[in-house]
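Annex B. Sample input.
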Amino acid sequence: MQKVFWFSFVLSLILFIILDSIWFQSFSLKYIYRPQFQQINQGPFLRKKLWTGIFTWIVLAFTAALYITSFYEEFTLARAFVVGLYLGFAIYFVYNFTNYATINKYSIRTATIDTMWGSILFGTVCCITTIFAKVI
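Annex B, continued. Sample output.
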């Protein structure tokens, strides 16, 4: 079980970084996050605190690995995706809609799109990681 957990953690971390990087570079940075945070910050888009982003990915990967190792033997891929989808929805919904409720210029558009992305991201990571966890 410990071997499956650490494997799931490392694979989830790699997948989160790769998929999020593709998402940021191909679409969301230009059309969603940069305009949103320039409006909120009234200036520079990012305060380059890379370590906080890396730590966030580590926490997400740990959460995914904990979830996967708890249930992977009994999950079909469809179920792993759907439950991962829900897990991502819950995490990203709390973050985004707390921002929407507390930050005047945080838009419902950003909250909705980012929540949908987090749901799809988690579902995909959990599904792919479950495939490999079953083989170990």
